[in-house]
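The instructor's notes for this session suggest beginning with a concrete chain rather than abstract definitions. Hand out the sequence below and ask the class to guess, before any prediction is shown, which regions might be ordered.
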Amino acid sequence: MFSKTANDKKNALGRSTSLALLMTLWYTLSAFVLVLTASAFLYQALSDSLAHENDVLLSQKLQNLTNRMKDPRVDLNDLREFVGELPVWYRNTSFWTRILDGQGRLLTETPGMSGSLPIPSFKEGIPNGPNATVHSPEGRPFRVSSTQGLWLGQYPPKVTIQMAFDMGSDMALLERFRSKLFLALGFSLLACALAGYWIAHRGIQPLRKMAATASRISPSNFQERLERSGLPSELSDLAATFNGMLDRLEDSFTRLSRFSSDIAHELRTPLQNLRGEAEVILSKARTPVEYQDLLGSALEEYHRLSNLIDRLLFLARAENPQTHIQREELDLKKELGLLQDFYGPTAGESGVTLGLEASEGLRAELDRSLFQRAVGNLVENALKHTPTGGNILLSSSNGGETIRVKVSDTGRGIAPDQLPRVFDRFYRADPSRTSSLGGAGLGLSIVKSIMDLHAGTVEIQSEPSRGTTVILSFPTSSVEN
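After discussion, reveal the predicted structure:
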């Protein structure tokens, strides 16, 4: 109960997380951060530009006053006019100036300067040093500087000049700029959010189409595929991968459906035979000989079922990715000779010649039991379909990149349209004839599975009424000469 509730909550939480919303938020955040960074840079650039301009003006003003005081004709009234103590028409109200003699006594200053910028406030302005920013008791900002000079109109001529620039107008300008900047940032945030929403929804539109297509795929509708045209390269690759997966699933589902139908058919026949024989046995009293015959027939059906189940289990194990084979060095001529000796008596009883043509010294690292089973299945198939007087030939050769083992016969052959399906499970080129011979249509499927385990391939060549050749090709990585 608790687990189900927790899973429901987890699923609900997962559904509430919208990719479009996340993309919108991230786009809005990243775009706004860029806009904010650019705005901060512009504001700082304007502030630095104003400060630099003030320093340049302050330096020029100081230099002009210093040069003027070097003129012996300049008297105290001239200095008072310069600093604004005496009214003149060219007075610049942004500059405040104070002149001190060598003992620090006040000679002249701009009216009101002592109230806003007393002498100690220029301690931050190191004589002949860099400029500094100070604030008056009322909070007004000033850019201040001090330097030492010579006034030839007095003795000793050494003086200290203190000068300040009123930054109130600059601060008002920056305040207006900040107000407009905040307003612009607000509109930028809204614009980024709207643009992010539009881009996110437009960007995930292909994903929604892909999801809609995927939702239509079902066991009864495996033909749907994702449309790749018009998709971005990343989604196009995803669609191709998804379509490839659907192709494999459709193929597997088709094979599984056919396999289920075939195995039901294969099991039904022996079970019906067993049921019929049991009903015959129970229908009336029988003699011991009749019971023996019926039980013998039933035993044959049991063997048939057992062989069928064994082969199906082998195929299931062979298709397991974790299945490992036990390789050992094999002399292929010797192994094929053993198979010839084993099937020779059966071939002789059928009036078929079983021959061998194998290269000397050809060796390979293979699983011995699987190799014998693969070639043995091919020999058994050849014996079933080769009439009396026919020939079966086992051969091996080194093809350079592969080593080849061939099983050729002069039997009935297989029609060309049936060749692509002969390795499918339960497939029979001639169902009635193969069934009468006791085959279940799994022999070649087992051969193919064994070759897959060895990373090899199997190929079949056949002509009706002229015979069949099956070629097993093993990679040279498993071959030693």
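Then share the key points. The radius of gyration is 51 Å. Residues 19-69 form the longest helix (51 residues).
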